[in-house]
Amino acid sequence: MKIKTFYTVLLLLLALNLSSCKSSADSGVMSAGEVTSQLEKQNKKKAKAAKKSQKEAYKRYWNGQSKEARKSIKRNNKRAKRLAKHRKKGRR
């Protein structure tokens, strides 16, 4: 009885050991193209998150300003765009 149990446990451990070695060997090998694509995906996600947080901060800032200040800035930006357009037109 003891020998039968010993063999069963030995076979179970051997099977677990072989299966773990096989899976780790396959997942560790990546080609250069796969690595660069993974890095590009990570960088793209980081850039998207940074852009989103910057947009939220901008929105939070302007929501904290008075309505009159927001209108004033909007008018100034419009005026600056119009002047830039006329300056660009005059250069041609």
Characterize the structure shown.
By secondary structure, this protein is mainly α. The protein contains 3 helices and no strands. It has helices at 2-27, 32-64, 67-91. The mean pLDDT is 85. The protein has a domain at 42-92.
List the helices and strands and how they pair.
Elements: H1 2-27, H2 32-64, H3 67-91
Quick overview of this protein structure:
With 92 residues, this protein is mainly alpha-helical. It has three helices and no strands.
Any idea what the radius of gyration is?
A: 32 Å
What is the oligomer described by this structure?
single chain
What's the overall geometry?
elongated
**Would you count the extended β strands for me?**
0
Give me the strand/helix succession. HHH
The proportion of residues forming helix, as a percent range, comes to over 70%
Q: DSSP helix count?
A: 3
Secondary structure class reads: mainly alpha
Question: What features would you highlight for this structure?
Answer:
3 helices, single chain, mainly alpha, 91% helix, 92 residues
